[in-house]
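Lecture 7, part B: from sequences to assemblies.

Below are the input chains for today's worked example.
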Amino acid sequence: MENSRGSFTKGIAAGVVLAALLALLLMLFVAYTGSYNIAASQDHSPFVRWLFSTTMSHSVAARADELEPPEAFSEAQVEAGAEHYKAMCEHCHAGPGVKRAEWAQGMLPQPPHLIDEAAHWQPNEVFWLVKHGVRMSGMPAFGETHEDAELWDIAAFVERLPGMTSSEYAALGQQTGTHKH
Ligand code: HEC
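Predicted structure of the full complex, as structure tokens:
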């Protein structure tokens, strides 16, 4: 009894080692043969796209969970956030009545139109995304160059984006002169 259970366990262990070796060989094959197309002109397969976007959204949610957003955002924060958005985000993410820059249309993944997508993210998640960026996607990290208070201003503005009209958008972010770059 003991012996047959022992050889069964050994068989499983050998199977796991073999599977790990095959996975490693497959990775090396892909890395060295050039068989995987990394072109930004062609989308990932549906499975790889699903894997990346699901990993990305759960990674952001898990890390942003620890952040406490301010109880309410003031109009002054939305105004200051709009100025940052127009200077640093609009060319990739577009805005009400404003298209993304021509070069940003060649990016993959495509920077989403935040007017449509912002409602899927909590302000603490937007804060985290803007502070840390998303590796290997083109979404930059702004945490090195901006104070947390400025990043909350941006989150305050992004929360307002869904449903914003183009004239409201045009009027915002003109008054403060706080964006120094
Ligand atoms: C150079 C282009 C670029 C700039 C500039 C940029 N982003 Fe992004 N952003 C991206 C890309 C690409 C993604 C998609 C990442 C992904 O799907 O993995 C993204 C994703 C996001 C997301 C998540 C949206 C979603 O549904 O996937 C938010 C929120 C966001 N960016 C906010 C901002 C804000 C706010 C700024 C300005 C402070 C900004 N981004 C600047 C390229 C950019």
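Note for the exam: The chain has eight helices and no strands. Keep this in mind when comparing with the next example.
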